[in-house]
Amino acid sequence: MTLLKEHDLGTPARPGAATVELEIDGLAVTVPEGTSVMRAAAIAGIDVPKLCATDTLASFGSCRLCLVEIEGRRGTPASCTTPAEAGMKVATQTARLEKLRRGVMELYISDHPLDCLTCAANGDCELQDMAGAVGLRDVRYGYAGDNHLGVPKDESNPYFTFDGSKCIVCSRCVRACEEIQGTFALTIAGRGFSSKVAPGSGDFLGSECVSCGACVQACPTATLEEKSVIDLGVPGRSVLTTCAYCGVGCSFKAELRGDEVVRMVPYKDGGANEGHSCVKGRFAWGYATHKERVLTPMVRDTIADPWRETTWEEAISYAAGRMKSIQDRHGVGSIGAITSSRCTNEEVFVVQKMVRAAFGNNNVDTCARVCHAPTGFGLSQTFGTSAGTQDFKSVDASDVIVVIGANPTAAHPVFASRMKRRIRQGARLIVVDPRRTEIVRSPHIEADYHLALSPGTNVAVVNALGHVVVTEDLVDHEFVTERCDPDDFATWAAFISSPEYSPEATEDITGVPAAELRAAARLYATGGNAAIYYGLGVTEHSQGSTMVMGMANLAMATGNIGRDGVGVNPLRGQNNVQGSCDMGSFPHELPGYRHVSDDAVRHQFEQLWGRSLDSEPGLRIPNMFDGAIEGSFKGLYVQGEDIAQSDPNTHHVEAALAALELCIVQDLFLNETAKFAHVFFPGTSFLEKDGTFTNAERRINRVRPVMAPRNGKQEWQVVCDLSGAMGYDMHYEHPRQIMDEIAATTPTFAGVSFAKLDELGSVQWPCNDAAPAGTPIMHIGKFVRGKGRFVETPFVPTEERTNRRYPLILTTGRILSQYNVGAQTRRTKNVTWHPEDLLEIHPYDAEERGVVEGGWVALASRAGETELRAHITDQVPQGVVYTTFHHPVTGANVVTTEHSDWATNCPEYKVTAVQVRARVHAVSGPVSPGLSSDRPGTDVPALR
Ligand code: SF4
Ligand code: SF4
Ligand code: SF4
Ligand code: FES
């Protein structure tokens, strides 16, 4: 169990090796130079009373409660704003200080409702604690004068309330929103007695607030309070676990009252988030107990039959019997499985083991196929490892940040906050994206260059950047000579120097002005530590793998790899994409990215598992679909993935699923894929899982069960049972034993165990004898593959072309409040902000088609047609339209095509030629309230 409240040292830690020694209340204490007296005292075990200070925010010095006396100095300075000095003698408790503090507290309390016993924060309120700490016994001032007691509550946010009557105007919320979140949604309006916290001119919901919860976390009183705490009461215990949404992998304390989760509080010592959160992890966890969760196994003979609830035993034996029968009739290779990046490493490991040992083939693939497979391929070809190079903290040391095909404020919000902080400190920013995403220009940050390329021309842009680096001799020759293969570099340099790759020659293709591109290349190459962060806007293209290699070339040529502040970093979509790939989910790779044809590796697994393993790669997801339609692939087990909604060209996917003889779906809800299933295994939510997730920075985090599995079985147990019923016994008592097997067979995980994770909190792989505490930054001194490998990256335009019939390009992405196919977030109050997918269209394109704001449009491609409502915005360039794919009713993937990355088959979600037509449509319902704060009709950028 984790402590409910971590010790708050009052002001942030100061970096640096130099220290000072001082004396506080007679105790000697040594602290880093620049540390506040308050923090030094706390380190010495003396907590000075405080209200406006907290160790997550820069000191502010407004409440005057933390006064101390310092020998030889006049007055009573605030300890939170006074730096500790060598030889200082500080007294924190004297009669004079006590009197002063009581006076301060008296003033606060005289304008505070004295309803402590019925207040939702009773027992969890710093004002209450401080009244006790300073020994306040009575308040001399009555309530007769002016006060704030009648201020109305703002309850507009679905997750927290703002009760201004309890506000002490300490400004912690305002500073949290600025310093931690970087949204600047709050201000202190007015002066003196009338000063108050204000979210713009209206309420929280209508403001720029993105509901990250940082202000709620920082508030020392019940002014900003989670509604769940108001409803359920103050929690009494907590369990440390990991968010199950995006690849940032934030650590949270699940705080409980009895067995009920009251709130999720971001963990201050969390390696990935250091106490910050976004609206999804902080608030959108209610889906775990949603009434639509299926908790009982179900079977049916055909997909036309109704579901029949049954026992686990019958469901498993039914599934195994039908799978074996398919293999008897159609061969060993006629069945397979798809693993999920939403499941734990342990759950994924057992699925690929079941496929290889029980099914007897390599027909296992993962949803990473449709997102970051090109990352694995591209980075392993160039650097030797299928993973990003840095930890998130590294961006604090970046001088130039390049964001390519990623929208971190929407998809990786906690990392985005860190990155924006670095930009506010002065780092330069280059954004490569067709859309004007929030980081291009938002309050307090602005990109130096926004290369608004035409969708599908990434490789032309990266080649042009490389061209400038080589032809203007901005190459880091020392790095290249020492660290990279000289022949490969020479070949690449000759290739990239070709005039056809110059910014001027490619301007017409990319749409990026040559001068701007040249300037961006110079900045990247010469601006100090330069780091690349990229997302699915890089990988989900027909040249996704080429682009990953192009970025790796650029980083090597400029020496931006192998130290703090630099690197090439995929922002992984789902919580465990990295882990599901690491675990051997690909049909050609055993755990640890080792090819199935490698005899030595295969023999190691064969000996351990007692089965001979297939040395031929199995089927990828698209091959499984094609095989199903052709009739050679008949049985599929799908672990926690709604492929009917998330994979491209829905009609084709549905045809494949409908052709299967047996489809087993394991999930929380009856999703779109389950419509084609014959067996439904209820899944477990992250609050029930026991295992590990690996985030985008290779950080392995523990996922600890907060409640018993509501379906009665952990998912790894279900897989073991299914495997056993198919004739191959897998037996584990606890998921820690699965991790032990992973560690025993996978060199990069050799030092990982649940015990080590409990001890260190988290570790970044490689974790082994050479790096027992893990590896935050890779390729220091030497690339994993030895010499860095430059690869030629010719630009090949996608086959998906616009024409008169389909003149626009559709690109897709995510929004902050929703997550992927929305199975979880749609079942939470996050629908307040994004109740439907909308089509963003440029004003010119809209006018040409008679499309009006909020009006229905038909969106058609060569693959299919759907309809949704339009939002007219110049955030998309002319000729490009954009939508999200969070709502099955829209089915945005009905229109995406089967074009895919040449190396990995990752679908080309980001480029689909489409036409948009205005629909004369009876509006099916009132314009949703969410639209008023999220999209059409206003420019409020809430929860984008
Ligand atoms: S919840 Fe809203 S107001 Fe509070 S810190 Fe986050 S963005 Fe700012
Ligand atoms: S809302 Fe809370 S954190 Fe903000 S000023 Fe008021 S008391 Fe301080
Ligand atoms: S940033 Fe990602 S991991 Fe962190 S709380 Fe949000 S969704 Fe969860
Ligand atoms: S805690 Fe130091 S002035 Fe408020």
Protein architecture, described:
The protein is of the alpha/beta class and 944 residues long. The chain is 29% helix and 17% strand. It has 29 helices and 37 strands. A hairpin with an 8-residue loop joins strand 13 and strand 14. Helix 16 (503-510) packs across helix 17. It is globular. It starts with 18 loop residues before the first strand and ends in a 10-residue tail after the last helix. Residues 167-173, 197, 218-221, 223-224 line the site of one iron/sulfur cluster. One iron/sulfur cluster (SF4) binds at residues 176-177, 181, 183, 185-186, 209-215.
Concise summary:
By secondary structure, the protein is of the alpha/beta class.
Based on the model shown, name its key terms:
37 strands, 7-stranded mixed β-sheet, 944 residues, 17% strand, disordered C terminus, binds iron/sulfur cluster, 29% helix, binds FE2/S2 (inorganic) cluster, alpha/beta, 6-stranded mixed β-barrel
What's the arrangement of secondary structure elements?
Blueprint: E1 19-24, E2 27-32, H1 37-43, E3 69-70, E4 89-91, H2 95-110, H3 126-133, E5 153-154, E6 160-163, H4 172-181, E7 187-189, E8 196-198, H5 214-218, E9 224-226, H6 227-232, E10 237-242, E11 251-257, E12 260-266, H7 279-283, E13 298-299, E14 308-309, H8 312-330, E15 335-339, H9 345-359, E16 364-366, H10 373-382, E17 400-404, H11 408-411, H12 413-424, E18 428-432, E19 441-442, E20 445-446, E21 449-451, H13 458-471, H14 477-483, H15 486-497, H16 503-510, H17 514-526, E22 530-534, H18 536-539, H19 544-557, E23 568-570, H20 577-582, E24 589-590, E25 594-595, H21 599-609, H22 621-630, E26 635-639, H23 643-646, H24 650-659, E27 662-667, E28 679-682, E29 691-694, E30 699-703, H25 715-725, H26 735-745, H27 754-760, E31 762-764, E32 808-813, E33 838-841, H28 843-849, E34 856-861, E35 865-872, E36 880-884, E37 912-918, H29 929-934
Parallel strand pairs: 1-4, 15-16, 15-26, 17-18, 17-22, 18-21, 22-23, 26-27, 27-28, 32-36, 33-35
Antiparallel strand pairs: 1-2, 3-4, 5-6, 6-9, 7-8, 10-11, 11-12, 13-14, 13-28, 19-20, 24-25, 29-30, 30-31, 32-37, 33-36, 34-35, 34-37
Helix pairs in contact: 8-25, 9-25, 9-26, 10-19, 13-16, 13-17, 13-19, 16-17, 22-24
The chain binds iron/sulfur cluster (3 copies) and FE2/S2 (inorganic) cluster.
The site of one iron/sulfur cluster (SF4) has 14 residues, from helix 7 and helix 12.
